[in-house]
Amino acid sequence: MASVTSLTDLVNRQLTSALSATQPEADPLLRRSDRADFQANGILALAKKAKANPRELAAEVVSRITTGDLIKDVEVSGPGFLNITVADRAITENLAARLADGERLGVPLNEDAGVTVVDYAQPNVAKEMHVGHLRSAVIGDALRAMLDFTGERTIGRHHIGDWGTQFGMLIQYLFEHPGELAPAADVDGEQAMSNLNRVYKASRALFDADEEFKERARKRVVALQSGDRETLELWQQFVDESKVYFYSVFEKLDMEIRDEEIVGESAYNEGMPETARLLEEMGVAERSEGALVVFFDDIRGKDDQRVPLIVQKADGGFGYAASDLTAIRDRVLNLHATTLLYVVDVRQSLHFRMVFETARRAGWLNDDVTAHNMGYGTVLGADGKPFKTREGETVRLEDLLDEAVQRAAEVVREKARDLTEDEIGERAAQVGIGAVKYADLSTSPNRDYKFDLDQMVSLNGDTSVYLQYAYARIQSILRKAGEVRPAAHPELDLHEAERALGLHLDAFGDTVFEAAAEYAPHKLAAYLYQLASLYTSFYDKCPVLKADSTEQVENRLFLCDLTARTLHRGMALLGIRTPERL
């Protein structure tokens, strides 16, 4: 791997060098500008600090900047800004180095990378996945890919709901109605969910109607928690059957879920008593009305009463807090995590705020080991209300994904020229699932967004389909070029549209690092949309195969090629496919 220093950093270094003669700790504060490639606006703050005239100070800095191979021109603008124009040769040479680096496109690895445990995609055993499970899965998967690309080592954790009182009801029903669940190896995802639904509905009906069954079910919970062998065997049947179903849904989402990363609530059952003991011994938790709780002075409820985090209930049972705190201990002590990232509904923010503070008081989290709750907003319908079916029920995730693929098939079939029906079906899955993911990821995670399939699969606007067609168009151009191959020609002057595209291509690595550091996949999505838009402008203004000279054809093919590779890599980081033909 040969990492490439971005043009932004190169310009920053030269400006910093020029500024340091005036102020050793000066910061150029570079940003993009409509008037030039970059604008340095740190001069104003520097002049204020030095009690100098901003324009005079800016002129002094300009006199210390050497123009040539990197900076073509620099001029004073407005009250003391510096407008900087990068040389065409520098743009082309930097992009050539990126293309030569292969799949990483010259993006370096973070030398200070750590270990991040990402808690995401948390379905519940014996229950269908619905639209509410979409965002955690999609956002978490993208964040893992982005962090991995920057050099971080990520470990996935799917904290599935596989423990609790409902399993007493389900297991007791299976004891009394053996054979209701076929071995997981003998069913597919759809059949697995059908079996689970049938057993759940039947056991619930019996639980509600028969007091004696209800009492037997409650005793079964005790048997489960105490580790009774037969009870655990039937519980495992539910877990295995549910996993078959989970995998089928995640496969539709084009996501890889590793079995060893599915570590549900049950995995922490044995460690919860120790967690409670440690918290009480350290004085972090205290007894209140028989329960073991943690109080926070700044978290209060009705009548200004402190709201406690309940670690252990008065009856001796444990809840979510004990499970989450035990998970933190495991992830820090056994997985050696430096960062814990939770991709969880924003409505759980208060819970995790209390859990994290408790873990900090206990010393499990500190300056070297941090935790973040990536709270995400709600998926809304076209009416701006939480997405429901016409009957008012929560939308099944499988139904939603199937409809997205069907809509995409209509779009692909309408545009398809040389695709077979099988190819149309394959592309429809890539376009439809990509559309769903991109609509989610292009929105800031903490915001709600409207689920509008008509807009998602549109060829116009900020959609994944627009990006996928831009990529496919480039592949078509590269095929039509025949024996003429992409090649960089730094000696050529660049058209304005070529410069804009080139500068944006060079910012890919900086964008990925920023988006990963801020847990902001929407910033990468915005970058890719702008890239496709700049490519469209370049394509409209700069003939590629009919350029004025062979060298110019090769250079524009080179820009096409790097754009395609950047789109492909960026979309892959978001978990979206880029078909070669559409």
Automatic annotation (TrEMBL):
SMART domains: Arg_tRNA_synt_N, DALR_1. Residues 467-582 form the DALR anticodon binding domain. One of its GO terms (cellular component) is cytoplasm. Residues 5-86 form the Arginyl tRNA synthetase N-terminal domain. The keyword Lyase does not apply. Its EC number is 6.1.1.19. GO terms for molecular function: arginine-tRNA ligase activity; ATP binding. It is an enzyme of class 6 (ligase). The keyword Nucleotide-binding applies. It is found in: Cytoplasm. Transmembrane segments: none annotated. It catalyses: tRNA(Arg) + L-arginine + ATP = L-arginyl-tRNA(Arg) + AMP + diphosphate. Its main location: cytoplasm. Keywords: Aminoacyl-tRNA synthetase, ATP-binding, Cytoplasm, Ligase, Nucleotide-binding, Protein biosynthesis. Monomer. Belongs to the class-I aminoacyl-tRNA synthetase family. This is Arginine--tRNA ligase.
